[in-house]
Amino acid sequence: MYEWYEAVDALKPRMVRIATPVGTGSGFLLPWSSKSGLCAIATAAHVVDHAFYWEQPIRLDQVETGKTVLVRQDQRAIFVESRLDTAVIVFETGVIQPPEGDLSFVPLEKYLRVGNEVGWLGFPAITPSLCFFSGRISAWRTEEKAYLIDGVAINGVSGGVVFSLDVEAPVVVGVVSAYVPNRATGEVLPGLAVARDVSYLHQQATNFASLDEARSAQSIPDPPVAPVVDSDTPGVPTRTG
Predict the structure, then answer these.
(1) I need a surface site. Which of 1, 98, 155, 215 has the fewest CB within 10 A?
(2) Is residue 3 part of a domain?
(3) Is 200 helix (H, G, I), strand (E, B) or coil?
(4) CB burial of residue 207 (10 Å; 0-12, 13-18, 19+)
């Protein structure tokens, strides 16, 4: 069985810190086999929705390689599924290079059962370092295609990759979306992390012939939803990045 540290080492080259004019988040390079010179990054929709709607630049930092690039509105295509808080950024390969090798995903229409342990990677706002976290799946919400995970509230990790261990490789389970604080006693108690499954990423596995083709097919931007800073109501998500 793969060890957690081996999975982290395998995923590190794919991890990207995402910065927009209004905040930061995390993302990870998808394993596209595109011959058009395009690559794609998966993230949470709320990480990029403001920049997408207002046509603002997005900075991508591939921390493992020390590479960074500023991607402007006319240099990218963005595909958003707001209902699942999942997005894909498509842009031309250049400074940011997708690593070699494939990446396994949970099959479409399948999900991990409650009790399975998962890990996730992302860039917390309190440190520039890539950080690893882990917890167990506490519940699965079919209509929302969301996992509730026994985890911690870490600002900045939204859009990070959630994964489980297989025999020879990590398997992508979903995308970090939010955090549900526990305020049942009036104090902040350990809550639940929310991760969206990979169904939308399966849909966006198309390889476009060019950036122009991708831009012509991209989502229509919706007005961004104001991020939830905190909540006194149990069960209301707090955005983590």
Answers:
(1) 1
(2) no
(3) helix
(4) middle
